[in-house]
Amino acid sequence: MSKSFFIDTTLCTACRGCQVACKQWHALPAEETENRGTYQNPADLSFDTYKLVRMREQVIDGKLRWLFFPDQCRHCLEGPCQDVAGEPSAIYTSESTGAVIYTANTRQLDAAEIIEACPYNIPRKGADGTLAKCDMCNDRVENGLQPACVKVCPTGAMNFGERDDMLALAQSRLTEVKKKFPKAMILDPDDVRTIYMVGFEPNLYHESAVASAAHFGITRQAALRRMFRPFRNIASQLS
Amino acid sequence: MTNHWIDIKNSDCILIMGSNAAENHPISFKYVTEAQQKGAQLISVDPRFTRTSAKADIYAPMRSGTDIAILGGMLKYIIDNKLYFEEYVANYTNAAFIVGKDFKFKDGLFSGYDPKTKTYDKSKWAFEMDKNGVPKMDRSLKHSRCVFQLLKKHYSRYNTKLVSEISGTPEALLLEIYKTYGATGAKGKAGTIMYAMGWTQHTVGTQNIRTMAMIQLLLGNMGVAGGGVNALRGESNVQGSTDHCLLWHIWPGYLKTPRASNVSLEAYNKKWTPKSNDPLSANWWQNYPKYSVSMLKSFFGERAAANNDFGYDWLPKVDDGKHYSWLDLFDEMYKGTIKGFFAWGQNPACSGAHAGKNREAMKNLDWMVNVNIFDNETGSFWRGPGMRPSSIKTEVFFLPAAVSVEKEGSITNSGRWMQWRYQGPKPLGNSLPDGQIIMELGERIKTEYAKGGEFVEPILNLKWDYLTNREYDPHKVAKEINGYFLKDVTVRGKSFKKGTLVPSFAYLLADGSTSSGNWLYCNSYTEKGNMAARRSQKDAVTGIGLYPQFSWCWPVNRRIIYNRASVDLKGKPWDRKDPVIYWTGDKWIGDVPDGGWPPLLTEDGKPNPKSKHAFIMRKHGHAQIFGPGRADGPFPEHYEPMECPVEKNYMSATYTNPTAPTYGTKADIYKTCDPRYPYVGTTYRVVEHWQTGVMTRNQPWLLEMQPQVFVEISEQLARLKSIKNGERVLATSARGKLECTAIVTKRMQPLQVAGTTIHQVGFPWCYGWRLPVTGKEESANLLTPSTGDPNTRIPETKAFMVNVIKL
User: What is the model's pTM?
Assistant: First the structure.
């Protein structure tokens, strides 16, 4: 059984209900922010911000577009972070939902290595070295609820359900959306459980909207390094 | 809203102008999105490219304050290109009415203008009557003085070139919008307008909306699914509070506040009850005395009797010709004539136009009672920026109020749906529900008045029995609003027992045997129960999303008002796909019809004398393309805002709205075309904050997203002023100044207006010095002027002149 998100950015109004709902459900503190000449705030994902609506003004074919990208963990099918960590007590994939979960034991990992491994630049390190990111609201999902960000979305931009259903929805929406946005595409659907659809070139929304080849290269190298470091089992270290 | 939120999904074309629904009414985009997915076009017209514009098929920039020019151009386009729905226009609107010879329009002024009083003699705009006292009509719309021909003539000046010169909106975009929206004039097509304060907060606010209403009538968009004129209310219960007389000039249910010249109940009822001699006009307001007397019975109970005019004399009267609106109240407070003030769920130190004047005015108060869930800039005005607490004598009392989820009761949303809410958590600490505060206050005042004094009758006779076990009982109030039979009576062939709830306003009486706190809500809480608490998700047979048993909607649960205009003269829906109602031959199916009378024509095409004209709330049964009741003219006309960047009105010789109020204290400074204030300023809300931010600035997650007051300026203006994105700047107007963060953005563009480049800037008004704690984020209303619309006196906070400089 595997769940997936389908995030249709063509329907996102950047109301940021998802961003607040995420903070609320996870009881995350507000960050001290300032207006930096943009609506996007906080500036980036952080240890206290798992979900961030990125907002960019782009002139495309002579027309102003305000592109909204509700960024979050992709919950990769084969998570490079999980591979690099190689430590199921720190990073594991929930069998019931497919959520890639970070535990308090991530404090024992090499944070830089994990962050570097992520093709989407998602994990963030806390003051004590613990890593944090979107957990798919796994506690909600396991209790039959939708993730908080999906629950509050008014327009249908945020969707969540069985992976097959989400893939089918993505395909049918793509066919529809292409009429208005011929360059629309679904991002990395075979690799991730957070499947985005964008109306324009993904890099116009966010540089890490799609996984870059370079990133995967780094990830492979990191995985190789790990192979030469046997016995790195946090659980055994702790015991 | 004439329609309701869900109904937006039925639209073929959605115009969002004068509002920013994606940001300020985010849930509405559920239905906007649904309409778009079914092929509807979304048009956004706004001085600034917003999150609404980001989702629109067409976006057009405009100069704030030029909506009538743009919409007048659309009227002309619709007429010139014969896009109007002629059958609808001829039969359901007053387009066919013949206007009297006294009506004239010259140099931007209508006939009857008195420059001394800045008012019109509206009798000059009267219709011509036949020998029976019924307006003369020409349903062929050809008579030279029929409304349609006068309309055509009036807007013949509004050609796209001139409209573009005034508004700064490129001609090509105007034409694209006119063509796209005008296409909804086709039979079976519906266009809708979503507007809010971007239209109302102007010296021509009422006429902005009238212009759109006229477009909707020409296109046959009123009464139909996916159509209507839809005001998006800024608070969850603004519709409800307006229905229950939030405004000074209306009593509950839109009855009139009596004037001093309405010397008796009889005189009052006579003055405000319209009379029609047309047997086909339902003229629903002919029932006025039933509603006014039932309201007095509700106020004064058994003390109200026929021999004392049901207590009419106990209610306050306003002086004829005098205004008592927000701007006027603060003007009087500034002048020192108002000594006491209840700020109840409001924050005028930040929310009111010319906030600096309001804050100064508060110094003149002896006392202020601030009822709110948090302290705010109003309750703490005496310790605000620039104040010397030691020199301010005002005594401020703070009453902590329970928040909405802590109390039971109803709210009425923009779509007129009255929805009952249950109590969640109990009120925190010593905070109380508003109802409890009002009840206790009333009891204390009664006790004081019982000791004697001048004119104690209104207070002592007031019926005040809404407590159960010493607690405010919202059910008792809701039932009182609905109304009771006060004796055993037979009405319209039905017998009712004393003490039972009135089933609908059709059963209210003018003889004192019924009560109703608000006739419009009669039918909301009946012997069948609390209608507003219903939660059935079953749709009506027409399947257009009416959900008639979910909550309750005024009037009499009619979800789309004016729905008799959604069908042809035989009762067949114009739109077979999304019918609101239809005539089966002996009854109406679908929504609750606007009156149960049969269609105007029988099946074989003969006039049915038992029928009534479609627009039953209008005296003559027809919707008003010509509106002779407005303070500033029967046709909307473009006037410049009180502060504007152009030296003349390019449409006529009359510069600004000749009936708009201005004020004369030393704080009231207006600067137009002044080089010190060269840029058009406007204000707005953001999705992250609510109103002045009293609730949201106390909420760290929301402050995190929008932490500081900002000004949005174009890249071109930023270059001109050497302003960098994200740096602090100073904005000034003739009245005040505001430090804010510059957002330099492509979403603001300079406009070409009358051959010159005009820059616009915009500010959110959701900040105040109390929070965030830096004390540096202030209200944008420190910049806005005290002037407003002559009909409603809503302030002109959407168009004024400012400067922006580097700090």
Answer: 0.97
